[in-house]
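Build the 3D complex.
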Amino acid sequence: MAQKIRKIGVLTSGGDSPGMNAAVRAVVRTCAYHKIDCVGVYRGYEGLIDGDFEPMDARSVRDIINRGGTMLKSARSDRFRTPEGRKIAFDNLKENNIDGLVVIGGDGTFTGGLIFNKEYNFPIMGIPGTIDNDISGTDKTLGYDTALNTAVEAIDKIRDTASSHNRLFFVEVMGRDVGHIALNAGVGAGAEEILIPEENLGLDRLLESLLRSKASGKTSSIVVVAEGDKTGKNVFELKDYVDENLEGYDVRVAVLGHMQRGGSPSCYDRVLASRMGVKAVESLLAGESNYMVGIQHEKMELYPIEKAIKGKTHINKELVRVSEIMTT
Ligand code: F6P
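Done.
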């Protein structure tokens, strides 16, 4: 029989994402609602090893639903990859009478949680917090919606200057190995071309497409490039390639970078975080473990963490087609 949960720890780990604070708030308040204790663990798994814990109550999480970043801080922990590090973490949890953990992060966070559970049979519940939207078992990860809006806003601004100077801009967006941010922000910002790892356009077709754009009367262009795309080695190489192979183009590069991870979460992410936090705590209390809380067709669902880590997300083919039609 599953052990009774009286105290839950919550941590944020890996790359931060907007909405992590809202999720921490939801976890803490759901614990308060069910009259169980909650402990914040600072700096992800690093804090678990260092015993960097702080008891939290409903008031400790006031005024954070709107804040970007994570008040619990985040880290990528090499020590937690070792059995010795995990043993210290387990001892700290036992010493503090913590009997379940909510881990908020991406696949690295989930992998750590899963290994820890296998070694110590410690109850774990995951909340997918990453801007990349690269976790299977959930239609959206926490922070993705905000990152899309941030990227679109930035690209809109780049378009203003691109158009004033009749320039071509390569704009690199984040997303690690997947193109969800690039495709959606590209369509949303009206990009002329979108380069994503899932659909290799190739350098020749890129040149053709740029020439077509020019011939159709466009004086400036935005090409959104996912950081994981392999058309060129990177956006700077794409610029060099166009400089060398096309005449009459004034090319610039903008890498949006970590600004996409910051900022106040969108309403969508705040609501999603609140729902995920409630579901995570109540699932632990119901004796569940090794699941991730996902949203599927607007419903909160539990999805095995193991499948979430190993699964692949799929690019929206219909949206790829829409983007092709929009660039006519
Ligand atoms: O996973 C989130 C993410 O922002 C990716 O989009 C990006 O590739 C990576 O993290 C950057 O990581 P770091 O913060 O270590 O530079």
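Residues 15, 106, 130-132, 174-176, 227, 261 surround 6-O-phosphono-beta-D-fructofuranose (CB under 6 Å).
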